[in-house]
Amino acid sequence: MARIIAGTHGGRTVAVPAKGTRPTTDRVREALFARLDHDDLVDGVEVLDLYAGSGALGLEAASRGASRVVLVEAARQAAQVCRDNVTSLGLSRVVEVVPRRVEAYLASAPSRSGGFGLVFVDPPYEMGEDELARVLDALVAHLDEDDAVVVVERSTRSPAPTLPPALELWQTRTYGETALHLLHPATEPASDPATDPTAEPTPDGAADVPAHDHPQA
Known about the structure:
Layout: E1 2-3, E2 13-14, H1 26-38, E3 46-50, H2 56-63, E4 68-72, H3 76-89, E5 95-98, H4 102-107, E6 118-121, H5 129-139, E7 149-155, E8 167-175, E9 178-185
Parallel strand pairs: 3-4, 3-6, 4-5, 6-7
Antiparallel strand pairs: 1-2, 7-9, 8-9
């Protein structure tokens, strides 16, 4: 069993599949969501949980105010556990379970709602780096392109994920054997006024200051 850490369903238990999954520990989820809540990245946001397992990450987001959560899980037993958890928590209006392979789901047409603002990617640790890179590349079309965060959970023994040009690393946090790589949309390099005819001149004495979509740790 796992448990919902906080929010409207804080303290409620979540069933986990008997085998075949690697649930994110309560400690790691608590630390991760403390970071996300601090930057207001959950409440009112559409959330996608890939390789959902028990659905604990997506269900935690729903408990903390996510407007919509999609759990994608291909394994039949795990997908049923997700459905059972959604039903027992009374979250069927907010949480949808999609029993499909992640690659097939990402190959489908993106949501018309504007894209997901928060995505959890928690594949098996044995997944190869090339395969993960393809998943991240396919994921880009499903993101809120202006303000999305992608959390990739890997072993600390694995290298940082290879990113498509549309994503960049925000920060990496480690908890024991778990590494969380937080990504967000890549910022476009500032144009050079000397070569960009559309750029407005900078007033004398003014300095260009790069903006960040999210605060740094």
